Amino acid sequence: MASLTLSKGSNLSLTKADPGLSKAMIGLGWDPRTTSGEAFDLDASALLIGKNGKVRSNDDFIFYNQLEAKDGSVVHQGDNRTGEGDGDDEQILINLNAVSADIDRVIIVVSIDQADARRQNFGQVRDAFCRVVNQDTDTEIVRYDLSEDAASETTMIFAEIYRSGAEWKFRAVGQGYAAGLHGIATDFGIALD
Questions:
Q1: Rounded average pLDDT over 35-39
Q2: What is the mean pLDDT of residues 165-185?
Q3: Alpha helices in 66-171, H assignment, sequence order
Q4: CB neighbours of 185 closer than 8 A, spacing ≥ 6?
Q5: CATH topology (fold) of 4-188
Q6: What is the mean pLDDT of the chain?
Q7: Nearest-angstrom CA–CA distance, 192 and 189
Q8: Paired strand residues for 74
């Protein structure tokens, strides 16, 4: 099965593209621009969103300091602090069968750590992508290569995995947030200190 490549705003039924899919690996990659300034540290995270468009609690925010959802349905594979090398820089595993029925979608976010202090943004990041791989068969189902210039944005929603009736679908989002991870967290109901 050849992987499909989506453009921004497009979606794909994962259930139809790979009927055997139950455990999805979300691979995320990027290459920061070479600069003489401070090193880049990009961080992937996942937000489990209910039908009301918000998280149920801070437990639904999966990131480098909270690697696993309470029910084990979403697991972050750990922080990569440099983004060096080929392939996925960070990975998030989603057991679709284990995702609670009151979760409507899983939003995949990538943010630049200390972006404001380091004066960094997504305009300085190239070759960013998000892909979905069937963990059981190691087959890539879909890929989204982010190509837009996001020079003012420090955090970006790369994609989301969402329910549509009995199906799971993938949407290539590519929406940047100049307000950073704090802005996204606030919009989706995470309580920050």
A1: 74
A2: 91
A3: 115-118
A4: 61, 192
A5: Lipoxygenase-1 (2.60.60)
A6: 90
A7: 9
A8: 94
